[in-house]
Amino acid sequence: MNNKINQILKGSSSGVGIAKAYAFVIDNSARNIREYDKKSTKKIQLKKYNSAKNRLIKEFEQIKKVLGETDSDYKDIFETNILMLGDPELSSEIIKNIEEGKTSEFSVAVSYDFYISKLLATDNQYLRDRSEDLIHLRSLLIDYILKDSQEYRLEKGGIAVMDLVSTRDIYNFDKQSVRGIVSQRGGLTSHAVILARAFKIPMIVGVKDALKKISGGDQLLLNCSKASVCINPDDSLLEEFQKEKDNVDKRKERLLAEVKNNNQSENEVKLLLNVDFKEEIEEVHNLGAQGVGLLRTESIFGSKDLNDQEYQLRIYKDLAEKTFPKKINIRLFDIGNDKLLGNFSSSEVNPALGQRGIRFLRNNPLVLEIQLRAILKASTLGNIKITLPMVTNIEDLLWFKDFMTKVERELSEENVEYKKCEIGVMLEIPSVSFSLGAFSKEIDFVSIGTNDLAQYFFASDRTQDNVAGYYNYYDPSFLRFLNFSVAECKKYEVPVSVCGEMAADLDFVPLLLAMGVDSLSMSASLLPDVKECVVNLDNRKIAELLANVLLANNSDDVKNYLAQCVIVK
Ligand code: PEP
Ligand code: MG
Hints:
The protein has 22 helices and 16 strands. The radius of gyration is 25 Å and the shape is globular. Strands 1-8-7-3-4-5-6-2 form an 8-stranded mixed β-sheet. An 8-stranded parallel barrel has the order 9-10-11-12-13-14-15-16. The chain has 3 domains: 2-28 and 151-232, Glucose Oxidase, domain 1 (3-Layer(bba) Sandwich); 42-145, PtsI, HPr-binding domain (Enzyme I, Chain A, domain 2, Orthogonal Bundle), CATH 1.10.274; 268-564, TIM Barrel. The chain is of the alpha/beta class. It starts with 6 loop residues before the first strand and ends in a 5-residue tail after the last helix. It binds phosphoenolpyruvate and magnesium ion. Magnesium ion binds at residues 428, 449, 451-452.
């Protein structure tokens, strides 16, 4: 009897979707790798290695072909992986080990480990990052050699089960194939979760012991609304799941039809889109969003050469044209911390508090100059806004404005056409809230990045589940601080939007509206639900709710108010 039937594991949900598929477990740590196999021969071992390698290359080629029609960025990642798999030096090292009588899995493991440690020992961050690719390839090759769960990888749809998922993993997944992701660790506002949401991949994070409890091939039901994963459901649970899935699908269809037909009224809060990859731009018009509230340029260009101005210009121009006549808010590279670093190196002990966003750009003015020139050249339709990430003080802003004036002057001297862009700052470091008087004289808008604001307010790493309890939007101190920040923006008449994950959390949408934010910017997959919530709210009731919540003693009180109050019309 299978003791895993109907076993339910709980975690935290990325918010969207429901999925049924088989598990493919990607466990980079535990595997039974024997050095010798007396029953085997060198010939068999060599064949095993070659067929695993060739099979992987063939799969990557297939994926590359599919991606080639839609996205060249991901295509490049697979291209690099193919080159690494075929690397002659690495391959001959593996073959040498096999010739010495070792198993193919052991030969792959030691040879890859040798190159991984060589890359990790360099000072070059770009090369160190490549070590992650090698770790991934090592794991895939060994899986294939050991015939461990390979049927579920890349070819058929499956639910990936991993310890920790990185943004690189999300890019590496075949989006057509992966139906869902379960991870043992990770915070809900980590960029991996944000990307998974952008790609509409249901994901549950913080599922304790997932790797112990789930085996490759187990059937899984992943339900984001319950933040649960069910292992090997019986017939009655499967039936229940199917009913719920039908309801979710019908609701999604209905909401999509509604957002498309519904033009927002003038005094309603504006709903904007966060864009993390280029193709998402189509959703602006599909979903009736009123523009792009946040274009994460580091997500879009993260794996590219950031010196390629022409490439950046092409993308910005295309995105601005596709958004027109609506506005697109381009955030300058927020490089650092858990975001892709391109080919820049960082050896900071505490990167979340280090050279991130505008701090990085001040130290790397050439990166900023190239990006600004590309953005300005793409601005001719007049619908581009520019936002500065990770601003700490007014000096950051004034430095940037001087820099921008210099770039504009140079473009004018070169007779390059451009339009004036509105300038705004991300409010994600609490110090900015106390300087809004000074900021207001220099900016056109403020975007509140609640993901980072909460991280810096509570001194709790947004990517780490062991401190996730401290990272708590329900804490009344945070809500009071947010209310103060919005009120300061209003006092100084600066338009204010919220573009962190909180903007699409249905518990907080009413509170943000009652605080008086002008717009909410969010992932496409969440916009229809937020839209439905917004049109049904009673303004008087949400004002009362906010007043109560701001006086609450603790998060439980806040949750109680939210649960008890009827705030719909
Ligand atoms: C935020 O910090 O809330 C935000 C929107 O920026 P990011 O998540 O990209 O850091
Ligand atoms: Mg941020």
